[in-house]
Design goal:
Helix 1 packs antiparallel against helix 2 and helix 9 packs antiparallel against helix 10. By secondary structure, the protein is mostly helical. The chain contains 18 helices and no strands. The chain starts with 20 loop residues before the first helix and ends with a helix.
């Protein structure tokens, strides 16, 4: 889920007397970043920190850029350096919490986010980030408490509403999730991901026509949306429209030839008419997804008889 990182602006650190050379360069770096010129911003932060290694806002902002560029080791180094300088700064603590939570260290992320919220009990971004961290380790009750607090702080925040919808879907509160997704799509009708999410909620509630309509919208907005194409293929299969299901599966293979579920569904589609083709697809799925080899092997074995092929079709129909 989306995380909130805070970039320090010049006004936060230039309130004290005369402006130094580093302060002037910092202003310039911020302007570069706001204009979308990350490379120039990064070079300017390098220059500031060569002259003044403990210039706190430059360390934090450089860490954010490093993280966005995928240089996670240097991002962590800058965050840890900044933490030694000002361990109670809420913005830094929020960024560190979001950083660790999004890099498979959710408990460490929660540790820093707890400190951020202790320092600022109304810190919206930290509540959103901590909710996402709790959700990632299935601490759903805590995630719900945090995201509800975030929504109270900013009732029209799309990020908070989006995370609340995802959490409610995870705990199967589909009606509540739909309420948020309807609102989100009214605010941003071009968001393919939220059409997909609403389709999944509709599907869970067996409102298949609504689900199909939202999947069509998601794919119209993003023709390469693999998850939406796969969900639509499943619905076509359930509607016994195997031609349309296979068409979507073939689109997925062209977009991403390592998406194992597409090969498995292709096997299910071919099961009755061409078991040899079905087996070829199950073998491809098994190669891409060895963790589920037992399931693919079972389907391959069932292709030997007509009764077995019918069992595969029936099982897939009800699972979808």
């Amino acid at each position: 889920m989306k995380k909130y990182l805070i970039i320090f602006s010049a006004c936060l650190f230039l309130l004290y007397g005369c402006e130094s050379k580093s302060d002037g360069m910092f202003k310039k770096a911020v302007r570069f970043y706001v204009a979308g010129n990350q490379d120039s911003a990064l070079k300017t932060y390098h220059a500031i920190l060569r002259a003044d290694p403990d210039y706190f806002p430059a360390l934090v902002n450089r860490a954010v850029i490093y993280e966005k560029l995928g240089d996670f080791k240097n991002a962590e180094n800058d965050y840890e350096h900044a933490y030694k300088i000002d361990p109670r700064n809420p913005q830094l603590l929020n960024n560190m919490g979001a950083f660790y939570a999004s890099h498979r260290r959710p408990l460490m992320g929660i540790y820093y986010l707890n400190q951020a919220i202790d320092a600022n009990p109304d810190y919206f971004e930290a509540y959103v980030n901590r909710a996402a961290a709790y959700e990632s380790i299935d601490m759903v009750r805590e995630a719900v408490e945090d995201i509800e607090t975030a929504v109270i702080l900013r009732p029209q925040s799309m990020a908070a509403l989006e995370i609340r919808a995802v959490i409610n879907m995870k705990r199967l509160y589909m009606t509540e999730a739909l309420d948020d997704l309807y609102l989100l799509l009214s605010l941003d009708p071009s968001n393919a991901k939220n059409y997909y999410r609403r389709a999944i909620a509709f599907k869970q509630m067996q409102r298949y026509a609504n689900a199909m309509q939202d999947l069509n919208s998601a794919i119209f907005l993003n023709p390469d949306y693999v998850d939406a194409l796969y969900a639509r293929a499943q619905l076509h299969f359930k509607n016994v429209d195997h031609n349309s299901a296979y068409s979507d599966v073939e689109k997925i293979k062209k977009i991403s030839n390592n998406y194992a579920p597409a090969y498995e569904l292709a096997g299910d589609i071919w099961a009755i008419e061409d078991p040899v083709q079905a087996v070829a697809n199950y073998i491809a799925a098994r190669k891409l997804d060895p963790a589920n080899a037992r399931r693919y092997n079972a389907k391959i074995a069932l292709m030997r008889t007509e009764e077995g092929r019918k069992r595969v079709i029936t099982r897939t129909f009800w699972e979808n």
